[in-house]
Amino acid sequence: MFDTAFLDLPALSAAGGEVHLPGSKSISNRVLLLAALSSGSTTVHDLLASDDTRVMLDALREIGCSVDAAGGSSVRITGLGGRPPRSPAKLFLGNAGTAMRPLTAALALLGGEFELSGVARMHERPIRDLVDALRQIGCRIDYLGTDGYPPLRIVQTPGVPALTAPIRVRGDVSSQFLTALLMALPLAAGTQDIVIEVLGELISKPYIAITLALLARFGIVVGQQNWQRFTIAAGSRYQSPGSIHVEADASSASYFVALGAIASSACEPKGITLRGVGLDSIQGDIRFVDAARAMGAVVTGGPNWLHIQRAAPGQGWPLRAIDMDCNHIPDAAMTLAVMALYAQGSSTLRNIASWRVKETDRIAAMATGLRRLGASVEEGADFIRITPPPQARDWKAASIPTFDDHRVAMCFSLAAFNPAGLPVRIQDPGCVAKTFPDYFEALLALAQAPAERIPVICIDGPTASGKGTVAAALARQLGYHFLDSGAIYRVTALAAVRAGLAPDAGNEARIAALAQTLPVRFAGDRVLLGSDDVSQAIRTEEVGVNASRVSAMPAVRAALVALQHGFLRLPGLVADGRDMGTVIFPQAPLKIYLTASAARRAERRHKQLISKGFSASIGDLCAALQARDARDGSRSVAPLTPAQDALVLDNSDLTIDETVARVLAEWQARQPFAVSAQG
Ligand SMILES: Nc1ncnc2c1ncn2[C@@H]1O[C@H](COP(=O)(O)OP(=O)(O)O)[C@@H](O)[C@H]1O
Ligand SMILES: Nc1ccn([C@@H]2O[C@H](COP(=O)(O)OP(=O)(O)O)[C@@H](O)[C@H]2O)c(=O)n1
């Protein structure tokens, strides 16, 4: 997951390949609650691992269900099955509406004392209509903060209240209230039919269809008339299906359907293949496929898969503008708003008032981001109209605020295919954790960009100047890959010595041959030579000196070039070494030559070695590093010297954090985003 302050996506040019989507958030949480209300155990497969499912699982444990890992993405839930929930209990539900609403209804019916709270945004998301419906039937629920919003306290004597009249609930604000009642009211259907009447036009009907389909899997049959009246038959009982698979999220599929529709396929495999959700999905958002087709996407599919390709020029590419009622696909329709950037003419998405009360005001959020990209946007209470930038040159490099809304973040990643070749900055990319923690990894695995567009920051300099430390910290903060080229030379030296080859000029050809096929791999912080973990072994001073020797051999350096180029991958790279800016990545937009006085560097190396349990004397180290500087600086190939366009940074009197901050400031200053103006 990209847990960084922002993620800069370079302009992307093409995409292709296959992706397996994670389980749906709303199906995951519905299934978890139904399993918790059933008797016996239910093994839930393909459960989404995300913030929202985590808070639901924690809450279920808190009220007395047992939750056991069942391998991979499976969990086994042993439900209450008629037992009262553990009470009193305080439940923290983050920003998960799919936990807050159904748990409120279920706990109010089961009885006990509960406090349900969430993050600040959750306390701004209305719940009055559900509370009013539950109060009608005698449930005691109090607001602990603002009237009409969580946090809530439930104090209800155990035992489900008797129901005499139909329960009425508004259906025109959020369908989640009706879902909550449909999932909880079978608890009250022991000896009587339960009738729920919807007031107003029910929005998001497809989400109710998912609820009904899942209730049926748990043995509860609900009759419905016109989406206005729902009847749960007397004697209904939650029956665990034993095991159940969570479908992948059709809303998450929308980003990849859109990706296939807008990205060209540079090479085989053509187009995007999605696994985990297909044309037979129980999720209403699968209808997004029809909307994407209307805009020009070429979509085929089967029971558990979809394949999407961009249309031929003039036959759906550029995309066609649409004017569409999106009530049936409220979440996925956000993706259409970004697809509209690639359409000819203005697109209007209507009947989307529910966007205003989601994780953020999504109409405002989409309008903000789209305008920053250069589109003209008109917004109303329940619609948004998008006119793309007229020409490629009218696009702008934008820093997109995501308002802690996973879908906003995912949608706007698609703007990286803009015809102007501009990068896009996604602020707080970690907010995708709500439904799709590895979204950006999945996108970047499919997306392609020409090597010259992938940004590289080079940090070169003498030994112990802090290159490795600073480069690794930068890579972490930017979400970029990290190349420790010194480690490659160290591994080469170690492999040579292990092969009986002394690091002398006479062995150059043989060491180069060995370097050509060096089986080195980086796995997080570990360095592997074949299957041998050599992370520690390569850090001795002896290996450092041998590395300096083999690195002076032109044939060895040549043999390692391709290996180093291979590290240049999306979304970007921070490369640490001696010749990153001069030889390996001469096109890099930022080159830092990091240095410090020999005395300071010897001190640092001394501390580092002592902390790793190696013995060393500062005097010896200072002499050795000066000798190494001389050898690295005087060798015939790629001598240690600042690139002409490098920025020399002497950090003798800077801390690590100060050094990183300086480099980061240089990097930010080179970005096209108007950061200060845009926030
Ligand atoms: N600016 C700095 N101030 C103090 N110590 C530093 C600084 N930069 C790095 N160090 C420490 O110096 C040691 C050597 O840094 P390292 O990143 O291994 O250098 P290099 O990769 O240039 O050889 C590390 O233990 C690191 O924590
Ligand atoms: N790009 C690079 C990186 C390292 N090297 C050599 O490899 C040796 C070990 O690299 P390193 O970065 O781990 O060394 P230290 O700076 O940590 O001592 C250095 O002394 C250099 O001689 C190089 O020649 N070119």
TrEMBL record:
The keyword Methyltransferase does not apply. Residues 457-666 form the Cytidylate kinase domain. Belongs to the EPSP synthase family. Belongs to the cytidylate kinase family. Type 1 subfamily. This is Multifunctional fusion protein. Pathway: Metabolic intermediate biosynthesis; chorismate biosynthesis; chorismate from D-erythrose 4-phosphate and phosphoenolpyruvate: step 6/7. InterPro entries: Cytidylate_kin (IPR003136), Cytidylate_kinase_dom (IPR011994), Enolpyruvate_Tfrase_dom (IPR001986), Enolpyruvate_Tfrase_sf (IPR036968), EPSP_synthase (IPR006264), EPSP_synthase_CS (IPR023193), P-loop_NTPase (IPR027417), RNA3'P_cycl/enolpyr_Trfase_a/b (IPR013792). 3-phosphoshikimate binds at K25, S26, R30, S174, S175, Q176, S204, D331, K358. Its EC number is 2.5.1.19, 2.7.4.25. Gene3D superfamilies: Enolpyruvate transferase domain, P-loop containing nucleotide triphosphate hydrolases. It comes from Verminephrobacter aporrectodeae subsp. tuberculatae. The active site is at D331 (proton acceptor). Monomer. Catalyzes the transfer of the enolpyruvyl moiety of phosphoenolpyruvate (PEP) to the 5-hydroxyl of shikimate-3-phosphate (S3P) to produce enolpyruvyl shikimate-3-phosphate and inorganic phosphate. It is an enzyme of class 2 (transferase). Keywords: Amino-acid biosynthesis, Aromatic amino acid biosynthesis, ATP-binding, Cytoplasm, Kinase, Nucleotide-binding, Transferase. Pfam families: Cytidylate_kin (PF02224), EPSP_synthase (PF00275). GO terms for molecular function: 3-phosphoshikimate 1-carboxyvinyltransferase activity; kinase activity. Residues 16-443 form the Enolpyruvate transferase domain.
